[in-house]
Structures are given as C-alpha cells and as structure tokens.
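Feature request, filed as a ticket because there's no other form

It would be nice if the structure record came with a short human-readable summary line next to the tokens. Right now we just get the raw output. Example of a typical job, pasted below so the devs can see what we mean:
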Amino acid sequence: MATRQSLLRGLAALCVFGLLTIPAATSQADPSTGARSDTASTPATTQRDDDFVGAGGYTYPRPTNAAKVFRWGTETWRDEFEKGTLRAQWAVNRPRKVGQQQGQITLNAGPRTGTVTATATDTSAAYGRWETRVRGKRYDAGTPYHFVWELVPVAATGCASRSDKTIVIASWQQDDTQAVGSVGVDTATAFTYDRDLDLRIGYFHTFAIEIAPDHISWFVDTEVVHTERRPEALTGTVYRPRLRMQAVPGAKMARSRMQADWVRYYSLARPGAKPITAPEMTRTDLSGVCS
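Raw output as currently delivered:
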C-alpha cells in the first residue's frame, strides 16, 4: 500500500502544472542534439568533483553523478550556485521564498506559502542529459510538501490535454522509502517508475535523465534504473528544468526547504561509456489522479 501511495503522489505531481508562466527565450537549436544555446547561459567549464557526504551514516557512492560514471563529457550549461545571488534567469513564482545560499539554490515554504517553483529560462533542449544533486527537508508537523525535480515544456498546455508531456525525473516527500518519476502519455496514462531510496532528512541524492530520439533513461545515484523506448514516451518536446515544492491546496503545510547543489545539462554529442540497458517503465492508469 505504501508503494502504491508513493507512486500516486508522484503521478499527481505531473498534474499540477501551469503554476508559473515560463517566458520564452530567443535561441537557436543545434540540429544534431536538439539543444538550444541561449545567450544568457552559463559558459561551459571543467566539471568539478562532487562532495562525498555521509550524513546520518548514509554512504554515498563516489563519484555521485551519473555524468562522470557514464562519461558524458563537459556540460554545455550549468549553474553551481557558488557566487553572488541567484541569477535572474531563474524564473520563480515566489521571489521572497527562493534564493541562493551556501552554494545551493534554496526554496523555502511555510504553512500557507503554497507551491514554490524555480525554472531555468536560459536553457532548453529537446534531447540531452539533465542532472542535479538535490535534497528536501521538513522542519515541523503539518501536511508535507512534495519535492519535485522535473522538465517542463517551453510551450506548456496543461494537464487536461496531457500534451504538455511534463517529465518528472524524481518526486518524493521527506522520509519516503521511494522516489518516483513519470512521463505523460495521454489524458489517462503515463509511464512511471519507483525506486527504493533513503529519503530521510538532510540526505542528498543525484537524479538524472537522458533523452534521445529513440529512448529516455532515468538515473538515480549514478545507476540507470529504467530505459523507455516505446514511441508514446518519445515526443521531441523542448524542455526546461524546474525545481518545485508542491503544496496541497487549502492544507496547513509543514515548514520545509528544498535545495539543489547544482544543475547541469549535457548534450548527446559524446556517447555514454556504459550501457543503458534497464527495465522499461510501468504503464499506469491516471484515472482519479490527474484532475
């Protein structure tokens, strides 16, 4: 039952869309990858090593990012959140609740804040790899926020038509035993996954996705967990990355925080160094979930 409830909560995250108007960016597409290099993008630099974290006795693999394990090369866009304040290219729906501190983008929310989102508007791509190292934290009692790392279409149309094809790379609540993810198929179905994971307070995890014309692969803490090749999941949609703390309308929420250490994008120019063979996703009925 707990597994099913976690899965449905993750699917519900797909349905709450359109809370932030994403401004269009002027860009040109790379015909070989589908990536759009926007003028405000952070210049590519040499990839740094990730910190090894052992908080609460949890042992993280080294390295902690799939990009290094699968040798995706140098990122073509990134934000490390290391200097100054949060760049204006991050569109946020609640400016007083989103900022940059201690080398991380930080989303805060209280009992009546509502949903909080941060979307990178200076990068977009139909194909490529996205990765972030992220955590969520709850500070007190109340209805828990849902933490979501996702890709949203540049041209959003909303849940009702399901044509938005939002991709949830990972979705969870603190102390869940699983992270879940999904990609919409139509108004009634989606391809979904759930992954056993220790999501207790303060624990960072790294979630990534590779989108190519013939497949989508999900990665959790450097391991490929699912590869989906069915045509319904392969839309060619142009996406932007978004971090979201999802509130339950009308509920008194628990004071919470979501932080990402970095967000990076890699093109498909360099083939992965390891196989991405993994089980396909689960086809799931969304009836009663997406409304």
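Something like this underneath would help us a lot:
The first strand starts at residue 27 and ends at 29.
Helices lie at 2-15, 66-69.
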